[in-house]
Batch of 4 targets.
Target 1
Amino acid sequence: MTHPVKVRPTDRSPSLKPPLCDFLDLKAQFATIREEVMEAVTRVMESQLFIMGSEVRLLEEEIAALLGAKHAIGCASGTDALILSLLAAGVGPGDEVITTPFSFVATAGSIAWIGAKPVFVDIDPETYNIDPAKIEAAITSKTRAIMPVHLFGLPADLDPILRLAKAKNLVVVEDAAQAIGARYHDRYVGTLGDFGCFSFFPSKNLGGAGDGGLITTENAALDERLRLLRMHGSKTKYHHDILGTNSRLDALQAAVLRVKLRHLAGWTKGRQARAQRYRQLFAEAKLLQQVRLPAIPPPQYEHVYNQFSIRCPERDTLREFLRLAGVPTEIYYPRTLHLQPAFEHLAYGAGQFPHAEAASQEVLALPVFPELQDAHQVAIVATITEFYASRQP
């Protein structure tokens, strides 16, 4: 009879430690606004008015006032915000829209969903945003729009994009899903192009209790068209002027977001303070040769740090080391859009956008939410220091 062999772990065997903290602690955020949120939810529940209505209208007005936008239109998601904007601009089958391959799938997916063709342009390796200098070469007779992304909360360099769009008569759709409150030359992103598209997914700086989105525009005619598109093309019940869809923002979501909007400025300062603390800790640990930190924005930019993504060649090995030490991380994004199976029909290949592809293999996001404790940041950087110390000969 054979007996199973019991293997005893050695002192050198890796062991998983309890989580140091959450990557994003929404429970901690909720604890600070519980009474306000529950009062808002109760107000909607008692009214039993769940679709559109005053809560949505007031949220639109309050966000428009905050951003300095003439019009704000709530919708069902950030993805729908992109789709509706393209539709309102008249973009459709046979058209091309220039964008970045280093973003969430909704960016290029919205273009493809309406039957247009995403045309990718490489990123600036320092900012991870689309490189304005490379856009003009991608313009063809079929190009109708440019969709820059304000990735991780850092504004894209919009001035050259806007100048080029004006010269070529192109629409600019700002994907500001991660960047509400970010500034570019004293203006809020989302108010410089023809459309600004925002997401209220729970992980965003202004996140709801589910999906939600919003579009900003300075054009009254586009505002009217967007409101038609989100409501089955209807202003009057059972009368449909155009073919639209159902992309309404729920009153419950609007009520919750109105509460959170009052705290957004403070939360933004909290994220910025957490980012600055990371910079200080990495410098003190003398890790700036091993780890590249997010680009420090020039004075005319305001970064709102939806993510704090460091960069290093040993990304995957470092991430596993951190996981075992109980440090949560995320990768935004592990595979560029032009190499995704969903976009195989575009016939792009590996190596076409080297900066985006390199970033996808090297970026690693660390926790950066406002409630993150200073001791947690110290421990995170100390663990990264330990990783590099262990690799010394």
Target 2
Amino acid sequence: MFEKIDVDKLFKKFRKQKVLIIGDVMIDSYLWGRVDRISPEAPVPVLSNIHVEKRLGGAANVALNIKAMGAVPILCSVIGDDDRGNEFIELMNYQNLTDIGIIIDKKRVTTRKTRVISGNQHLLRLDEEQDDPITGVSQAKVIEFAQNMLSEGQIDSIIFQDYDKGAITPKIINEVVKLANQKKVPVLVDPKKRNFLLYENISLFKPNFKELNQGLKAEIDKHDMESIANAMENLRKSRKHEMVMVTLSELGIMINEKNKYHHISAEIRDIADVSGAGDSVISLASLCLGVGLSPREIAALSNLAGGQVCERAGVVPVDRLQLMQEFRVFLKEME
């Protein structure tokens, strides 16, 4: 059973949180259009009536999710000294996000993912990116920024949003986690393959099912909950994490802590696009952890957040009022 939770008070507590987000950022560009015919030149659809839209993506979408909950996000990343970098800063300013943690590196290019969409049908994605590790100079700037934020004593949690694009390096992981642990600030990680086993002493480690298999070089069946739970527990112990939480898409979410695990089933939804669901999950998890919710409560609310954004096309942040209502309904059903 869940503890008695006052949803209004809980979400008011979220507003007092300040979250430092370190990770790979990008521009999510969308070419929305309509397909009425197949090209006579090749068996491919022809997109017409095109509308272009640009949004903040990657770790920047985590910042938008934190902001959507009324909390304060501080984003730290590295972008290029290019036109896309300028566009990224403009998008941040438009969303009223501070850019004090954005480092400009003339040796980098700013990542852009362009999705071609007809209605809710995803036709194609074009990635323009550079995924080698950022320079030593940029790494030092990221670490210094994190140290300054932690020294001010106002950071409630840190999120590593890792997309394997090079903004997060072993040195940054080691130094920032060490600083955070000294200040007793919880650290959450949304990992990818490259750095998967480099994270240690993490408060909450959140891979999705595919990333869990890749990171552990395992071949676990998605419906084998016992094997998933065992893999999570082995990972938690070997890397000295406090909690491991794995998203299982249509099968929900699982979280463990000290040999216990909880499985929360997914809600029935009309899925339009799964892009950005992980961003919403880690965002809500950080706020839940910051206000002291139990592992099961963290998983339940994070699961609702991730499911909600799948109902809308493109990468979008969670809707605060809808999430509050869904959580009330969930808690009522659990009584």
Target 3
Amino acid sequence: MNMSTTKIGWIGAGRMGFEMAKRLAKGGCDLTVWNRTRAKAEPLIEYGAKVADHLSDLAGCDIVFCMVSTWNDVKEVIAGPDGMLSKAKAPRIVVECSSISLEGSAELRELLAARGTQLLAAPVSGNAKVIKAAKLSFVCSGPKPVFDEVAPLLKMIAPAASYVGAGELARIVKICHNVFLGVVTQSLAEITVLAQKAGVPRHAFLAFMNQSVLGSVFSTYKTPAFVNLDFKVTFTPYLLRKDLDLGLDAGRKYEVPMPLASMTRDLVQSMMGNGLTEDDFSTLLLQQARASGVKLEPENVPVGDGLS
């Protein structure tokens, strides 16, 4: 693939999409970006990208990436009345990176196939800060030749891209990933509050955990939020609830009991019902503390997140 002559389109310049598109632009790709709010995409011009006024302007690209929030958003930007496919042209390949259901992904594949466009399902693990730290990872499914063709572009965005097979298999992997994200965060909140109520400072407890065999990149990454109560959004409770619902739907479809996921979904719903909706989903810690009769205060201890 010639990066300078292959025309790349990008839909979605939110927290994630902006940072992902920026890596392609900085890598010298011929990149055109569309975002519902144009002003959010315009800073990419500094890195060599162009900004489209209309989604249909991307239809003449060779490859188009899509990174938006929900299946309804995906369907609107791809196949809506003013969507990318609203004119005669269509790209050869769409790389769809949003977290959507298996059913939505399959419908999208059919919509694109009717226009002669191939789909690579390519959801990601990470957030904007993870992208900046070059630790994002893709999980991909669809035709293997399409994955092989797109792989150099994926490599520009993230160091890891796993191919898991045909069809929509990448979607179930991402759903499983995000269910685990919720369950692990709730579990980490419970044991952190338990340790604190017994008299252990949160920073000391998490320092031990992160250096133990149970520590992880994720537990280290969430430590500043848990210690200093900085809940700047990386992933909203609304989005976590959506993905837990997708996981529970998949569990019903495949007859897999998911008691921990179900309980976590209810706890996320309870948190949202109590007004914790606008900060990061790691505010599960605050809900756990309240349920335990513990008033949390920032410890104001410098702790690293393992990324920077």
Target 4
Amino acid sequence: MTEANPRLTPDRFNALAAAIEAEVSKAIVGQAEVVRHTLLAIVCNGHALIEGLPGLGKTSLVRAFSDALNLRFARIQFTPDLMPADIVGTDLLEDQPDGRRAFRFQAGPIFANIILADEINRASPKTQSALLEAMQERTVTVLGRTYAVQAPFFVLATQNPIEMEGTYPLPEAQLDRFMFKLNVGFPAPDALARILEATTTDKHTTLTPVADGPALLAMNALARQTPAASAVTQYAATLVAASHPDSPLAPPGVKKYVRYGSSPRGAQAMLLGARALALLGGRFNVAIDDLRALAPAALRHRLLLNFEGQAEGIRTDDLVAELLEAVKA
């Protein structure tokens, strides 16, 4: 846990980040990159969309982070019948001691620090949109009154990429509010063996909170102070500009298969994440390699395929790789 003083040194930043990663890794095996990128999103006060096949530990990953952080946690299971009021809350009419009646706001689960939006694409667009204001503005408006969510505030959402029946794909506006989209791959055989050993016996892994809200806010403040040279910032801007098919910088694959490229939020996600990644590497300035390392997570959900790209099953990760090859430092 951290001291009351919110000021943080780079060494303390690294110690906290290492402690969080180590604690989460007790429960999550074989997903080091996903753990690191989720940590970066949390440190940068951003949101993450976690996608993977059933049984790969997406929900367990979010729960592990909630256990390693001394923060208020809420899990929302998204279903087709879920309503916006089930997320944000509603006004209740109650009898008062003097006999009168008055409305009292009953806060919904969104008023927590870490929100697990499980299977987010199973809810209707109306319900999905209930998250939009909170994710971007950190406020919730109910019946004309605005309430602030408590900082820090993170939405970690999961979705299944193969089971599309009865789902509602997230609209572009909501996808763009996620700092990173992380793909959870199938574990290697040795990692799978460790998972089986840990989950098929009566042994239970208990995680200990190693950081709290003030610590995360201080880590975010320090990350934002990490300097980035103008050439690094220009590279992020060029990379995002080249993701648009009408740009002269766009590579052939982008011109052929992309309908819309990344918004400016893609560049912001790369640069802010790179600032934190540089600190984790013990460096006090951002390198272009930091941007390139985070480009897939920051851009894969921001490249919208056209009909031809969807028909041919083009992967946005391949297009991001082509971008990185085309845009040289």
